[in-house]
Amino acid sequence: MRPTAASSVPPHPQAVAELHDLVIDWFDDNARDLPWRRPDAGAWSVMVSEFMLQQTPVSRVLPVHQEWLARWPRPADLAEEPPGEAVRAWGRLGYPRRALRLHAAATAIAQRHGGEVPHEHDALLALPGVGEYTAAAVASFAYGRRHVVLDTNVRRVFARLVSGTAYPPNATTAAERRTAGGLLPADEATAARWAAATMELGALVCSARSPECGRCPVASRCAWRLAGSPAHDGPPRKGQSYAGTDRQVRGRLLAVLRASREPVAQSALDAVWHEPVQRARALDGLVEDGLVEPLAGGTYRLPL
């Protein structure tokens, strides 16, 4: 679908409705069987998945999500545990502050909402650690509400399909929100299905590095493909290195702390990384972020 100079939103309602049908029909035939999508999953399963899936692939999330829900099937179950147990159970998913935020959200749900994940977007947005994307995603995927749900996959699909560019901007723009709003079905149930379908299309077909246009249900309408799939000419896309970074050091320090039920001596932490200045900086960062508690005698533990 070719973009116009005045707007990146397709101008014809019939064309938009056809997009809905094509993408949702594709989703019905090709969607992965993921536990948080099943009819009996519940809103808490959806919320846990949304926290875990931020910057982490599905394949790594699946086993941790299963273990998490088996141990804490309700928000109140998690809220009864110290936050350090959430960090311990987070394992190697990365970005462990998400575990603290999810614990804080569970505590707020238990205290303010009778242990039930709230239905309304504003109530979700008021929870600790829940931003615009997560609130919209939980309201849409758990409760079938009509919201614009813009993750990286959806933004890439819309950039190619509507705007004719290989990749979206590095940060979400007002123009992207207008485009997404213009494409959002009016019916709540269809809007929720569209949100899940476009996300899956971006994950499985319209991928960042190797888009499979031959499998795409809307390839014949894609502005980027119709323009000859031009190369990205915007700001450089930022890659995320890991080896040798403070993130890697933090991960190794946390692995030692997660493995121990007792306070860990400084010497045990010193053994995981050879460079003392970087190691100390990483440990200080973990303490500042509330992921590690220093104790008397030079020992450390996960937070209680």
UniProtKB/TrEMBL annotation:
Q: What is this protein called?
A: Adenine DNA glycosylase
Taxonomic classification: Bacteria, Bacillati, Actinomycetota, Actinomycetes, Kitasatosporales
Q: Does the keyword DNA damage apply?
A: yes
Q: What keywords does the record list, in alphabetical order?
A: 4Fe-4S, DNA damage, DNA repair, Glycosidase, Hydrolase, Iron, Iron-sulfur, Metal-binding
EC number, as in UniProt? 3.2.2.31
| Family membership noted in the UniProt record | Belongs to the Nth/MutY family.
Please, which domain of life does this record's source organism belong to? Answer: Bacteria
Where does the signal peptide begin and end? none
Q: What is the scientific name of the source organism?
A: Actinacidiphila acidipaludis
